[in-house]
Structure formats: C-alpha cells, structure tokens
Amino acid sequence: MDPRPLLFYCEAQLDEMLECLRRAVEIESPSYSRPGVNKAAAFFARELRQLGGKVAVHRHARSGSAVIAEFRGAGRRLKPILLLGHYDTVWECGTLARMPFCIQKGRAYGPGILDMKSGLVCGLWALRALRALEITPRSPVRFFLNPDEEVGSAAFRSQILAEARRARACLVLEPAAAGGALKTSRKGVGEFRIAVQGRSAHAGIDPMSGVNAISELVRQVLRIEKFARPKTGLTINVGVIEGGTRPNVVPESASARLDVRIPRLSDGERIERNLRGLKPFLRGAKLQVSGGINRPPMERRAAEGLFRQARELALQLGFHLHEASTGGGSDGNFTAALGVPTLDGLGGVGGGAHALNEHIVIRELPRRAALLAALLAAI
Ligand SMILES: [Zn+2]
Questions:
Q1: How is residue 67 annotated by DSSP?
Q2: How far, in Å, is the centroid of ligand 1 from the Cα of 88?
C-alpha cells in the first residue's frame, strides 16, 4: 500500500486538526481534577463516536474516567492493536489564563499540548484518514485513553494490562523525542521512602540519651547514593527530605523520598534488595523502607520490529525517522514489560513538556497522523 494519500489527506486537514487541538487544550484536565479530566473524556469520546468507533466510558471512584473506543479490522480473527494515550496533564486549573493556547512562528503553545493532547489528535486523524480513504486496518484498533498517567496510572492499571495482554502490538501516543525520534526504550521508575525512628531528648540537658534520626538518615542517604550506577543509566535522586522539630530537640524522626530510574528489570530487583537490606548506623535507630518499582523499564527489543516497520513507512512518506531512549516513564513501560511489541513517542513533535514553553511544531502534525495511520493499516 502506498501511504502517501494518507499524508495528502492529513495535510489538507491541518486547519481542522489545529482547531480540534485548540479545543482539547482549552479543556483544563490536571490529573487530580475529576471534573476537568471528565470533560476531556467526554470531548474525546464524542470525537471517537463521530469516527464510527464503539465507545465506552469507564468511571472510577478515585480518578477521572477512562475512554475505550473500538474500531473494526478487516481480519476479524486478528488480535487488536492497542493505541494508548492519556488526557490528564501536569497543569493545574487556571494555567490557561497565563499560558493560553496560541500560535507563533509555526508552533502552537499551551498546557498539555505536547504531553499529550497533540498525540491524541494525531490518533483521531489517523483513524479519520483511514476512514476517509476507505482503508480498513487489518487488525481491529482499540484506543485506550487513560485519565491519570501523569500520577502513575494507578486507577486503570489492571485494565491497561488486560488490554495489552490481548493486543498484537501497542502504539503509544506520547510526544516524540528530540527531532521527532520515536522512543524505543524507556527507563523503569521507582519511588521509595526511608523513614528513620530515633529517640527525642533535650539537646542541652541530656543529648546522649537521644538517638538523632536526622544524623542516621544523612548517613543512609550517602550510602543509598552509592547504589546508583550512572554510567549504565541506573540513577537515584533523593528528592525530598524531612525531619526534626526544633534546633534544641534531638530529632525523633526523619524521612527521605527517592526516585530511582532503572534501565533493566534486574537493576530494580537489586535496588529493592539493597534498600530493604539497609541496617541502622546508630544504636537504637530503626529504619523502615517502603515503596517499590512503579513502572518496569521498556527494553528496546519490544520495539525493534515495529520501529523497522515505522522507519520504512516514514521513508515512503518522505522523511527519516530516528529512535531514542529516554529516562521518563509512560504506560508503554507496562505493555513492553508484558512482552507486547510496543512503540512509543508517536505523538506530537515539539519541546517543553511539563514546562512553561510547552509547544508543538505545527507542520509535523499531519506527518505524525499519517505515519500512525500507515502503521495501523500495515501491522
Ligand atoms: Zn505523557
């Protein structure tokens, strides 16, 4: 199949794509705002219904709703392709007032525009292009829109895993890496908390009867940092530290929270073992370690075959596609860890994700949508 008509169609639709993107960005949907996330859910559910999808909205007691849309494939027996995206953002309600949607010098700006409302719009237009050109993908397509990816995907984790298990492949609409590269490997992510229990005492009258929890914690932090292997990509960031009450009190408690990034699953096992095996330095101090690896790494072999296919299709569409690895996690980490072929970074191209200058490059939009459509048709 020649994929170029898909590109011509998407290019002719650029104004409509941008208008849809503006409307999506202007629905503020931070992960913790149920009304906001649900408004975004309703918006995308409506768009997907208009494209002929069988759409279901799944409510959740503690988060916004997820949307699942199913589109028919030509080969009824084939397992579906899972398209994965999220409509929650890291931007609080009210951000639009100081960071409105705007277009400047070929770029479009706004909260959540790159991560990842532009990816969702690419998903919509890939499906729209296939429909307009009367191309039925070989496999059925299931489009899963997650409401809480930015806070760890707790609410619908088991559904995402179940969808992935019965899929042939998973295409993730997270933003591209620099220069439009697809993401073929991602580090895994863990979060841990180390709590120290000491004993309080008067710092002047009876300091020796106390056990200084801060002093214990500081020693532990120095030891924990030695578990990192930055050269192989295993990094540890002690990001939060708390403890103590007053300068004249020997502190009874202190705690630290750490972020761990792991290139391989075995690194995660080792870090967990090391952390849980920590022993106190000070006599009388007690340690408690909680947390764990929250997203397994997305190892490259899960993406290899799909990336080759995507690169080939991109060439036919007239551009070179590169691959990249990233330290950031996504829902692709879960699907790849199940052994499901997973390709990530198929969404918008731009910069400033989670930053004030978040933007996309407008002329890339039709290309990404066309590439995605071609992949859906070909896999
Ligand atoms: Zn994202």
A1: E
A2: 8
Using the 3D structure, point to which of 262, 295, 328 is the last residue of a domain.
295
Give me ligand 1 centre to Cα 114, in Å. 8
For residue range 302-335, what is the model confidence (pLDDT) as tens digits?
A: 999 999 999 999 999 999 999 999 988 899 999 9
Q: Per residue in 121-169, pLDDT tens?
A: 999 999 999 999 999 999 999 999 999 998 888 899 999 999 999 999 9
CA of 352 to the centre of ligand 1 (A): 12
- Ligand 1 centroid – CA 286 distance (Å): 38
CA of 141 to the centre of ligand 1 (A): 21
Domain harbouring 357, CATH code: 3.40.630.10
Q: Could you please report the per-residue DSSP string of 294-351?
A: EE--B-GGGTHHHHHHHHHHHHHHT----EEEES---THHHHHHTT--EEB--S--EE
Non-local (6+) Cβ contacts of 281 within 8 A are 216, 219, 220
DSSP string, 140-180: -EEEEEES-GGGT--TTHHHHHHHHHT-SEEEE-PPP-GGG
- For residue 245, how far is its CA from the centre of ligand 1 (angstroms)? 38
> How far away, in angstroms, is 330 Cα from ligand 1 center?
7
Q: State the Cα–Cα distance between residues 32 and 147, nearest whole angstrom.
A: 9
C-alpha 38 to ligand 1 mean position (Å): 17
108 and 252 co-located in one domain: no
Residue 9, classed as helix, strand or coil, is helix
Q: Across the strands, what pairs with 211? A: 199
Instruction: Give residue 3's Cα distance to chain centre.
Output: 28
Do residue 121 and residue 83 come from a single domain?
Answer: yes
Measured CA to CA in angstroms, residue 90 lies from 12, 29, 200 at distances of 32, 8, 39
The two structure tokens encoding residue 26: 């202007």
Tokens read off for 93:
């309600």
Q: Give the DSSP letter of residue 353.
A: T
By residue range, what is the domain housing residue 166?
4-186+297-378
Contact indicator for 6, 127 with CB cutoff of 8 Å: no
CA angle 132, 72, 121 (to 5 degrees): 55
